[in-house]
């Protein structure tokens, strides 16, 4: 009896439904990203002299920034012609279509607003928030796995997945017929390991960490990995087939440069983290 050289993947993306209400794995994991993130961030903020009330407010900013940014990122980066011609479709978020690069921009902007309105040091906020964003990214990529979406290219590696519920036609062949790289798992594992690294650094050093170190590490490592893993992915939209680098890679490059720039500044002129994220900079 021969063993399969791939892992059959036929998970139903819907957990259960009650009449017209459907509970799906992706939605559950997306929600858990914020639930777990809020609990971890509360522990961080309280340990540094802030209150859980601050976490409630920043979580609201985060949710709004993430959802709006991710949705606009998908519509403008991957299918602008369709959505600009049918703007009402932008609001139909339940149909799917969220972009991680758009979510990143949305988070950065929403946290800038939070820092300005509530008198926090912006970089202090970013250094703490990337810890929970890394964990959230891992959970969301697991949601993509449960949806059998964002699949990898055909491969014969022994851990390849055969996505039996993916009905895309790629190069004239049904995507479900061939074993493929489980790129969702690759990204989920990367994000989880990044969470462990960032949380471990914070827990051990806390306020001795120079401002910007955690944010710089997060952006540089996450989007460098994202750039590399794109070589193993199938393109998400047709116009990417004519590009030497796909949209995910092009959007990752400026974020990698931002991360490297922040790390360079940390190396050249390290500034101590301020107690509780006070706005005034240390003398």
TrEMBL record:
Any GO BP annotation: lipoprotein biosynthetic process
Protein's UniProt keywords contain Cell membrane: yes
GO cellular-component term (any): plasma membrane
EC class name: transferase
Pathway(s) the chain acts in: Protein modification; lipoprotein biosynthesis (diacylglyceryl transfer)
Binding residue positions for a 1,2-diacyl-sn-glycero-3-phospho-(1'-sn-glycerol): 141
EC number per UniProt: 2.5.1.145
Subcellular location, record wording: Cell membrane
Entry's transmembrane regions: 25-46, 58-78, 98-115, 122-140, 185-202, 209-229, 249-267
GO molecular function, one term: phosphatidylglycerol-prolipoprotein diacylglyceryl transferase activity
InterPro entries: Lgt
Keywords, sorted A to Z: Cell membrane, Lipoprotein, Membrane, Transferase, Transmembrane, Transmembrane helix
Topology with respect to the bilayer: Multi-pass membrane protein
Function field: Catalyzes the transfer of the diacylglyceryl group from phosphatidylglycerol to the sulfhydryl group of the N-terminal cysteine of a prolipoprotein, the first step in the formation of mature lipoproteins.
Family, as annotated: Belongs to the Lgt family.
HAMAP family on file: Lgt
UniProt protein name: Phosphatidylglycerol--prolipoprotein diacylglyceryl transferase
Source species: Pontibacter burrus
